[in-house]
Design a protein that fits this description.
about 110 residues; mainly alpha; 6 helices; about 0% strand
Length: about 110
């Protein structure tokens, strides 16, 4: 039973690798880490939903179903407060990446 040529081409053009947007995934990933270290849990949940949807091409409800336990795990393993070494490492990394604008998400120094 052969598939019509048009159906095969349509399926190939709309597959998950064709719709994957690495820039969007990277933006969600970066913003998720910022929300994690700022302890903004609802923002983190929203970003993880977007990250899961962008990465795997899932529906909104599938992404919510996956992102709620992900957020709960992030909350459980979050450090009590970010250490100075970690903050310095994040700032150093951002300084070396011209595409990341550190002014948009400065992390306050604890103290």
């Amino acid at each position: 039973m052969d598939m019509p040529a048009n159906a095969a081409l349509t399926r190939a053009k709309s597959g998950p690798l064709r719709t994957f947007d690495p820039v969007s995934v990277a933006r969600y990933e970066k913003d998720s880490w910022v929300a994690y270290y700022k302890r903004q849990w609802l923002t983190l949940l929203r970003l993880l939903i977007g990250l899961v949807r962008s990465t795997y091409g899932l529906s909104l409800w599938q992404a919510i179903y996956i992102s709620v336990p992900l957020t709960r795990a992030q909350i459980a393993f979050a450090p009590a407060r970010p250490t100075l070494r970690l903050i310095a490492l994040i700032r150093l990394t951002c300084a070396k990446q011209p595409t990341i604008a550190p002014a948009r998400w400065s992390i306050p120094m604890p103290g």
